[in-house]
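Q: Autophagy-related protein 17, please. Structure only.
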Amino acid sequence: MSFHSHSPSPAALSPDDNPQPRRPSRTSLHDTPAPALSSGSPSHEPEDEPDSSDLNADNDNVPVEVLVKHLLAAKQSLSSMTLVLRANDLATSARQMHQESVILSAQTAFLRHGILEEVRILQQVRRGMARAYDNGTREFKKIIRDLDTADGRLEKMMDFLRKTTVENVFRQPGEEPKCLLDFVDPKVVEQVRDALKENIHELQAAKTSFDGDLLRFDTDLRTLTDALAAAASLSNPNTTITADGYPPDQRSIPSLLSAMSDGSHLMAEHLSSLTRHFDMCVTAVRTTEGGAALARRRAAEATSSDSDQVPVSISGVISAQESESGPSAFEPMDPLERQELLHVVMRDAAEVDDVVADIHNVLQQMEMDHETLHSLFSAARNSHAATLTCFYLLQEIGARASSYVAAEAEFVQRWKDEKEAIADNATKMEELEKFYEGYLDAYDSLMLEVERRRAVEDKIENIWRKAREQVDKLVEADRRDREHFRLEVGDYVPADLWGVVDRPLGRWAVVPIEDTDAREGEGDELHGGPVNDMEERVGPETAYEREREREPSTPTQRKVPLYGPGGSAGERPF
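A: Structure for Autophagy-related protein 17:
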């Protein structure tokens, strides 16, 4: 019966087969068992077993030195037990790391999914804040443009007033020239402008404050997303390519675990085969005359001669009493069984080095696989820790999110309040512009009214002048008639009668009314009073006043006052 399923029979390998050394590969290490030693059961009868004469011919010539050498080599090969134990530890550690990695990966995925959902909500909140900020910015720019336009129109109107000089007719004698702007209070315009500047300053302050909140919110989101990206990168580390040419991401973790488990079992089977081979070597040495003593001596020499070599001890299988019993102290054995035993020992001895090398190679591959799994486990653990850090960071951002939402509400409310105040002040500015425009139009109308009144006075004066000329003509004609009448009848009329006839002709005088009287007349005219604004002196001069020659004073032009009744500087004249 063979020790491994792939070995067809104990006689499959003969001492003359001379097997070539085999190097482990991905297939030989993890898919099929490595070559193992033959069975040590001498009672097995294989189909192609050589006859007894062949065995006697081959095995009778095996010297005891060769058997002892194989015994010591077999004993030294058993030191690979530490490698097998190491392989078992690696496989156990790999399973534990895999179990913990599965738990950590599940927790990490759950946390990451929840964090991403919260990040989406925060991004929606951020987009809402951005819309409020963008709307406010657009409205702010529009408000500034409208205010600049309104202020430009107002300033243009004020320039018209500043460039319009008041005519001399509206100024007092000796008064310096003035413009229309001198009759209004410019402080009103400055007050409106200062109020608008204050409103704009408040809007800018609200915008700056909200902009700072948005910047802090963006920083929090960027920090969180960067941390999530870093945590995701930790779960997929860029490790180096393994010795067999395959990167770890192309070899699944289950295949690595299965390979390590198979390698551990294969190494255990190899160790079991080496143990059976050692037992067969011990039996062969014991059944050979002088073999026990030579074996102990060679073991002692090997231990003392090479300090770097692993100490070889066979005291557990060949005692000192057994080796000191003399050449006759060996166990007798059936010759046929002994020949078969020697045949198996010699055949397996050629494979010991290959089996030991295979154990080393399998362990080396397991070490690399364990390192790969450990790197993946470390990545999972680091990713889990980084995801936990993201979760704690999300908690901090969530605690500040309420302040960001409150900042948005405050910005919207302040923006609304300041817009209403700006609208009120802009309305005042438009009213000032309309007032100044009406003021300028009223001044133009005032100039026309002055010219109209001057024309009326000129017409009145012309009428009175013509009337005086007619009166003077009548008076002159009356004088000539009187003289002619006196010359004709004066000598005949008694003096008593002549005194009544000789009374002088009565005279009429038209004199201008003083300015105060003119204002009162204008006021009476406005209230339905007398229309005639000239003082009428009626009655002919009596005979007693004949010697007084009264000449009417020359009418003078009535000046139109600059201000209306009770007017003063800065008030409208009408």
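A: Brief note, in case it's useful. The chain has three domains: 56-102+252-380, 104-240+384-445, 506-574.
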